[in-house]
Amino acid sequence: QVQLQESGPGLVKPSQTFSLTCTVSGGSIQTNYWSWIRQAPGKGLEWIGFIAYDGSTSYAPSLKSRTSISRDTAKKQFTLQVSSVTPEDTAVYYCASGFWPNYWTYDYWGQGTQVTVSS
Predict the structure, then answer these.
(1) Cα separations (Å) of 17 from 78, 89, 116?
(2) What backbone torsions phi and psi does residue 51 show, to the nearest 5 degrees?
(3) CA-CA distance, 79 to 59, in Å (whole number)?
(4) Which residue from 86, 117, 82 is spatially nearest to 12, judged by alpha carbons?
(5) 40-91 confidence digits (pLDDT tens)
(6) Given pLDDT bands bounded at 50, 70 and 90, which one contains residue 4?
(7) Assign residue 88 a region: left if phi > 0, alpha if psi is -120 to 50, beta otherwise?
């Protein structure tokens, strides 16, 4: 059974950069698609991007200029970096995985981690 666990800072100041790490157990990150998704207060899920089994990446156009996803296969971790943050980046951030690239088909989700952008 694949399990995912997010970790990262809970509070970030505007204009700063933050990173979140997803640690995977019970599976290999060299299979499947591995995404970051977020949910802002009162809003629906928003896909941020994925890193695929072969290391290729894809990002939501609205966030592409400020986001980066990388991985460490030895540690079975993948990381999201978001730069130039604003309060609109406040959300619960989830890492998730599935066989297809579309996040709504994913079988495996982390519990989510709150990131608040505030001065």
Answers:
(1) 17, 11, 12
(2) -120, 130
(3) 13
(4) 117
(5) 999 999 999 999 999 999 999 999 999 999 999 999 999 999 999 999 999 9
(6) very high
(7) alpha
Structure tokens at 49: 């991007």
**Residue 103: strand, helix, or coil:** helix
**Separation CA 45–CA 47 (nearest Å):** 7
DSSP class per residue in 19-67: EEEEEEESS-TTSSEEEEEEE-TTS-EEEEEEEETTS-EEE-TTTGGGE
Cα distance between residue 97 and residue 104, in whole Å? 10
Tokens of 10: 């809970």
Answer yes or no: are the C-beta atoms of 60 and 112 closer than 8 Å.
Answer: no
DSSP at 89:
G
How much of the chain, in percent, has pLDDT values that exceed 70?
100
- φ, ψ for residue 64, nearest 5 deg: -55, -35
